[in-house]
Amino acid sequence: MIDVETALQLVKDHAARLPPKRVPLDEAAGLILAEDVTSGIDSPPYDKALMDGYAVVASDRTPERAIIASVAAGEVPRHAVIPGTAMRIMTGAPVPEGADAVVRIEDTQSAEDGSTVTIGMPAPAPGKNILRRGVALRAGELLLKSGAWLRAIEIALLAEAGHAIVLVVPRPKVGVLSTGNELVPVESALAPGEIRNSNGPMLVAAAADAGAEPRALDIGRDDRAQLRDLVKQGLEHNLLLVSGGVSAGDFDLVPAVLKEVGVTEVFHKIALRPGKPLWFGIQKQSRGDTTLVFGLPGNPVSSLVCFEVFVRPAIAALAGREFAGPKMIPAALAHPYEHTGGRASYLPARLEPPPGKPPSAERLPSVKLLPWQGSADLAALRQANCFVSLPGESVKLATGDTIRVLRI
Ligand code: AMP
Ligand code: MG
To answer: Whose CA is nearest to atom 17 of ligand 1?
Structure first.
């Protein structure tokens, strides 16, 4: 049985970023850019008014100026402004030739008949309320580097610079296969001995949250032939999550079936509680990439712990983000706790903001372990917003001791 760190390293070694793909900009949010992108334009593409007001010659001292025209955003001014004149201009409109300042409407007074405007003194400085062409971006300038995470801001920049199609690392496709003769789909009534498949929907939700594109396969029976067919369907994804059937029971057929269809085992069983039966393997595909396969324990809490510790980082790596192990933060234990070692443990817990007023960055949040009935007790997790991570060794912890937690 290997430890969690060794297992994480093995997953990391096999979790390579997916080959990049061109997608329309409106499908690129949240993905990683796979090419350097330069701006196709100067931005703004013309000297642009930043206020509603009058375009004027800054050095002009004429108190009352003839209003020669009006220009709105989207229009092109057809007259030049010369001393003694002004042009009415709206925010976003191109500044007319000759003008080098925009005076805010609030700082002017126009004649009742609309033919002239008086510009309040002092005179505007040259460039006032004008965004010059190309000050934000120059054509040919590097806009975003390969590897950039495309948040809403980057999507807007790409749109501004005219990139309708972008090369990105695609969302990993994840197949979710729940196995067990006792399982029925969520919409079914329960016959004696049956339970609803909760892992399937949980793993689909978790995978989507991690940035993957999940797909639920049919429920697998504890039957080799049927499992084989479903596993083959699952292997068409970048990552396959099989839940259940990986322990030592008579009907735990998953490891054998995975091997039968040519998935190479990387490890089986790790020193983790809950989550000991975890199975991990890979299959090289004829199309050139590799499918990662996780056999997750059937117990829902174990499945979730394995997802958070191993699968979420793997999805991140496939998607071109960093493979970072579970992101732990420090917290102060709210009560004493005696941990019996044996295996590294992740226990459901509730994290609260640091005690005291005002909240201080120096004080750690406090964390309380939640009572639970073991790894089948999904309901105990309703109150949980983190797992407390405890080591393989036995430890006696006191109130206020600093421990590490994994937010969920
Ligand atoms: P297994 O790993 O197949 O031995 O399953 C361990 C425990 O998890 C058993 O009590 C199963 O009934 C339960 N279990 C397995 N798969 C699921 C699932 N998809 N949803 C809910 N519970 C499950
Ligand atoms: Mg089973």
So the answer is: 298
Of 299, 306, 377, 381, best ligand 1 pocket probe by most atoms within 8 Å of the beta carbon: 299
Tokens of 366: 């406090």
CA of 185 from ligand 2 middle (Å) equals: 15
pLDDT tens readout for residues 264-299: 999 999 999 999 999 999 999 988 889 999 999 999
Cα separations in angstroms, 408 against 156, 305, 350: 30, 9, 10
At residue 325, the pLDDT reads 87
Which residue, among 408, 212, 387, has the nearest Cα to 317 in the 3D structure? Answer: 212
pTM, whole model, 2 decimals? Answer: 0.92
Burial of 191 (0-12, 13-18, 19+ CB in 10 A): exposed
Kindly report, residue by residue over 201-232, the tens digit of the pLDDT.
999 999 999 999 999 999 999 999 999 999 99
Query: What is 258-272 written as a DSSP string?
Result: HHHTTPEEEEE-BSE
Segment 337-360 shows an average pLDDT of 87
Best residue among 196, 202, 243, 269 to mutate for probing ligand 1, ranked by most atoms within 8 Å of CB: 243
Residue 285 CA to ligand 1 center (angstroms) comes to 29
Assess whether the C-beta atom of 27 lies below 6 angstroms from ligand 1: no
Is any atom of ligand 1 closer than 6 Å to the C-beta of 375?
no
**259 pLDDT more than 90:** yes
Whether 199 is in the pocket of ligand 1, judged by its Cβ within 6 Å, is: yes
Q: Using an 8 Å Cβ cutoff, are 292 and 240 in contact?
A: yes
Q: Give the phi and the psi of residue 107 in degrees, each rounded to 5.
A: -100, 20
> What is the reported pLDDT for 359?
64
- In whole angstroms, what is the distance from residue 351 CA to residue 384 CA? 8
Q: Which ligand ends up closest to the CA of 177?
A: 1
CA 405 to CA 386: how far, in whole Å? Answer: 6
Tokens 């979730």 sit at which residue? Answer: 304
Quote the ligand 1 centre to 299 CA distance (angstroms). 5
The overall longest dimension of the chain from CA atoms, in Å, is 97
For the chain, state the CA radius of gyration: 31
